[in-house]
Amino acid sequence: MATPTPLRQILYCKKTWFNPLFYAMKETFRSKKRNFERMKIEEAILYCLAHQNRGMRTEQIAEMINRYRLHIRKDGMPVTSNQVYAVICRYPDTFTKAEGRIMLMI
After folding, report:
1. Domains of the chain
2. Which helix (H) or strand (E) holds 59?
């Protein structure tokens, strides 16, 4: 069984530790001319679960990602709970499903 990637490594970007919520909120005030990298959806899901420190339903995760604009789809539409569920199924060594809740295995 592969060892899951530590949350610290996933949230580590460009040799600096950062708070994704701060940058996500700060980005809303920037002009669209500047190029700013958003989180990948799996990083946003990890952040939501680690921030809440409890299991969450896919609808709650999608709502939190959209509220704080942690991940923006290429077509500009909000993240759906089906998209969150697909990502969770893609990474079974990082996420676990139990009693209708998604939890971290880290």
Report:
1. 12-28+37-104 (1.10.10)
2. helix 58-68
Q: How far is CA 2 from CA 73, 92, 93, 104, in A?
A: 29, 10, 7, 15
Question: Which residue shows structure tokens 């990602």?
Answer: 65
Q: State the CB neighbour count (10 A cutoff) for residue 85.
A: 18
- With beta carbons less than 8 A apart as the criterion, state whether 60 and 87 touch: no
Instruction: Pick 43 or 1 by higher pLDDT.
Output: 43
Question: What are the tokens at 29?
Answer: 């005030």
CA nearest to 41, candidates 82, 101, 9 = 82
pLDDT tens, position by position, 16-63: 445 554 554 444 444 443 445 679 999 999 999 999 999 999 999 999
> Residue 99 class from Cβ within 10 Å (0-12 exposed, 13-18 middle, 19+ buried)?
exposed
